[in-house]
Amino acid sequence: MTTLTSQELNFLIFRYLHESGFIHSAFTLGYEANLSKAVIDGNQVPPGALISFVQKGLQYLELEANLNDDGMDIDGDFALLQPVDLLTKDMLELRQIIKDKREKIDKEKEKEKEKERDKEREKEREKEREKEREKEKERVEREKEKERERERLERERDREREKEKEREKERERDRFEKERDRDEKAKMPVEIPQVAKAAGGPEDHPEATVPAATPSDISHSDVTILEGHTSEVFICAWSPTGSLLASGYDKKSTKP
Q1: Residue closest to 85 by CA, chosen among 72, 98, 70
Q2: Where is the composition biased (Basic and acidic residues) (predicted)?
Q3: pTM summary value
């Protein structure tokens, strides 16, 4: 790379002063630097050449600062430097500035990543909480359903108990009616015929007569119903020697 001569640099400064409106300063610099005798063709120097030249030099320094000592790229994003740093600091200081900037950027990126991870974890926790709320809601619904079922069963048991009470009352009424009927029947007078003692049947004592029965109040429980004859019984008599009752009916036979 060719070296920039002092005369060329003075000419760039002269053009900068002239373009910026510093006419007196430009004239003084041109006179003192003897630029009128320079071999530089001003028509080939573009406007703003000094600023463009300085910017390119700063970019070069910035690019160099972003390289390792061996000329390889440093891992990480390209770090921009302030012009004042490029003008006032050497290469080691510039690289340290870049290193510090990258560490700061990495920390900020890590913080952002941590925030994102926190957001993801919070989302997961929110999902878990939502699941827990759903489970709790389902549990409450099941409990309510069980409670409704218990209430329904309790109502059914109450209705069944009421029905049982009604049936018991009905049975009590039936028993009461039966007891009342038995009592009424027991209070009814029973006619007991008084028969004469006879050794034979009606053929042997045709003249035997049965005296008229007299009414007497006898409890229904003291009355015994005797069965066995298939025809009408016309005579009966107690045995004089034992607790036997002889009865006779139209087939001319007796039953003890």
Answers
A1: 98
A2: 107-188
A3: 0.34
